[in-house]
Write a structure and sequence with these properties.
Layout lengths: L2 E2 L4 E2 L25 E8 L5 H16 L4 E5 L2 H4 L6 H4 L3 E7 L1 H4 L10 E2 L14 E5 H10 L5 H17 L17 H7 L8 H26 L1
Parallel strand pairs: 3-4, 3-5, 5-7
Antiparallel strand pairs: 1-2, 6-7
C-alpha cells in the first residue's frame, strides 16, 4: 500500500502491486465454524502500547465484520511458545512487521509507501504468503497532516489492507472499500465509524481462504506426529 501524503490519498500494494480445542483430523477438516487466524504483530518501530493496542483492535474488528476472528498478538516471540497460548499456536498464522523509516529504507520502496504485501503472482509460494509490512513513520506523518483518522486507525486499516492482499491472493485493487487503491478523506472519516470494510464477495473469499489455511495447518500437524 502506498500513500501520497501531499493529497492525503492512500494507495495499495506495490509489489506485483476462547479458542477451540485440539486440531481436528484431516478427514474431519476445517469448516466455516473454524474461522480463526492468528496475526502476530512485530512492533519493530516501537509504537507506543496504547496506539498499538487500538490499532490491533481496529484490525480485529474489520475482520470480525467479515465473519473471521483475527487473534491479534503483539509479541510473537514470547506468546506463541507459552503453554497458555498453545491452542493459538495451532491456528494458521500471519505476520505483520511494523517498521521504522530506517528499517524501510533497505527495501528500496518509494518514500510514500504505507504498507506492502511482497510477492509476485508467478512466485511458487504466492498463495501461501504469510508476511506483510506496515510503515509507522508514514502513518504518523499522515495523521499529523490531517484529522480524519489518527495513527491507530491508519495502522489498523493498513494492517487489514495488506493482510487482505495476502488472504485474497490479490495484487490489484477494488473500486471501493478497504481494498481500493486510494483512501480519500471521506474514506478516512468512514474508518472512525466502521464504514470502510471488505465487501461481501471479499468476505466470502476471506473465509474460504482461512478454511483452506486451517486445513493445511492440520495436515502439517498430523504429518509431524507420524
Amino acid at each position: 500500500m502506498k500513500k501520497t501524503l501531499t493529497n492525503s490519498l492512500l494507495t495499495s500494494c506495490i509489489l506485483t502491486a476462547a479458542l477451540g480445542g485440539m486440531a481436528k483430523s484431516a478427514s474431519a477438516g476445517a469448516t466455516e465454524a473454524d474461522l480463526k487466524i492468528a496475526v502476530y504483530v512485530r512492533n519493530y518501530a516501537q509504537v507506543d502500547q496504547k496506539t498499538l493496542t487500538r490499532a490491533m483492535q481496529i484490525t480485529a474488528r474489520i475482520f470480525h465484520n467479515t465473519g473471521l476472528e483475527a487473534v491479534m498478538l503483539d509479541d510473537p516471540f514470547k506468546t506463541e511458545n507459552t503453554a497458555a497460548n498453545e491452542q493459538v499456536a495451532r491456528l494458521p498464522r500471519l505476520f505483520v512487521n511494523i517498521l521504522t523509516r530506517d528499517m524501510a529504507g533497505p527495501l528500496g520502496l518509494p518514500s510514500n509507501i504505507l504498507g506492502v504485501a511482497p510477492g509476485a503472482e508467478d512466485d511458487p509460494g504466492y498463495a501461501d504468503r504469510k508476511t506483510v509490512y506496515v510503515f509507522n513513520h508514514i502513518a504518523a506523518e499522515l495523521a499529523r497532516q490531517q484529522g480524519d483518522a489518527d495513527q491507530a486507525y491508519l495502522l489498523g486499516y493498513a494492517m487489514a489492507h495488506e493482510i487482505g492482499h495476502v488472504l485474497l491472493h490479490m495484487s490489484r485493487h477494488s473500486h471501493a472499500g478497504i481494498m481500493q487503491e486510494y483512501w480519500k478523506p471521506k474514506d478516512m472519516r468512514a474508518m472512525k465509524v466502521g464504514g470502510l470494510n471488505f465487501d461481501s464477495v471479499q468476505a466470502v473469499q476471506l473465509r474460504s481462504e482461512v478454511v483452506r489455511r486451517t486445513r493445511q495447518q492440520e495436515i502439517v500437524e498430523i504429518a509431524a506426529l507420524q
